[in-house]
Hints:
The chain has 178 residues and is of the alpha+beta class. The protein has a single domain (35-168), classed as ABC-type transport auxiliary lipoprotein component (Rossmann fold). Helices cover 37% and strands 26% of the residues. The chain has helices at 2-17, 59-77, 139-168, and strands spanning 40-48, 87-99, 105-116, 122-133. It has a four-stranded mixed sheet with strand order 1-2-3-4, covered by helices on one side. It is elongated.
Amino acid sequence: xxxxxxxxxxxxxxxxxxxxxxxxxxxxxxxxxxxxxxxxxxxxxxxxxxxxxxxxxxxxxxxxxxxxxxxxxxxxxxxxxxxxxxxxxxxxxxxxxxxxxxxxxxxxxxxxxxxxxxxxxxxxxxxxxxxxxxxxxxxxxxxxxxxxxxxxxxxxxxxxxxxxxxxxxxxxxxxxxx
Length: 178
């Protein structure tokens, strides 16, 4: 009977181990923005503060997924103008990244700053709070999904705030690149 249990556990591990889903933090269903910021985005940086609890997951994996997802979202939304004379960076400081004891609940607080590259002046700043909780069964898949959901929600909220900011501060540049 013990051999049957070992075979069953081994079989389940083999089946589920082959189906591990990657962390997907890409926002969905984005359309180009109707408003934009007259600035050329040059660089996105992400840093994890000392209060961010990423011991259970790789902070490099989180930072890479976050940066790639934000770049794709901003490219799709076309909020920034490539032809602008004003050059900016987006600096993101993740002040809280709490992974629940079960690794299924993720809570993120991140501060986004748009910084003028010439003057180092902060043009716009937002603090975004988001959560992710997957209902998938398998532990690693559930953990990846929860992390991806929290990052995706954070980016989607930031994009919405950026569009509000762009609408409130709309300027007409000489041309807008698509």
